[in-house]
What does this fold into?
Amino acid sequence: MVEMLSKGGFLVVPILLCSIIAVAIFFERIIRFAQMRSRGGDLAETVAALIVKERSGEAMDLSASNDSPMGRMLTQAIEVKDRERATLETVIVNAIKGEVRTLSTYLQTLATIGNIAPLLGLLGTVVGMIKAFMVIQQLGGNVNASVLAGGIWEAMLTTALGIGVALPCMVAHSYLVARIDTYEARLQGGAVTFLKAVTKDQGE
It folds into this structure.
């Protein structure tokens, strides 16, 4: 495998580097999401119940000690829960947007790798084909089919490698985006639960 890749030219190196970065990003995000899932839990429901019981101090302590997107969003919401409804909703919306941006860290890099990997492969093929035709010219056209075929498959190797890196990157990117959408919906659900509790508490 190493010998075959070495025949693909110098552009094999950046393509392989892109694949290493993409794998690192994917597993870093997967681990991060798993940690958040275990920490978030039913925090919104618990905090809402404390708010209804007029135990805002305990609710604040609970959310502030919970290192998760839900905990950070609820902490900001509790801080302004007694202000105007418009202010509270604005704080919650901004908090959710901030958490979504944090969750999306490195995803643009992953998408970029998915876009440039096949282009690097194509560039490698073009460079390889140029070299192959230069050899043909130097030999005055006296090249047998086997020599020409060997040069062509070596040139095409980088394209195959680039596509092989790009496809998993795009699949991984789509999967992570779907996970982020799920977390965003969960944050919005938690915000609704909190707002209902605040409205009930103020009504009482």
About this structure: The chain has a mean pLDDT of 85. The first helix runs from residue 2 to 6. The chain has one domain: 2-203.
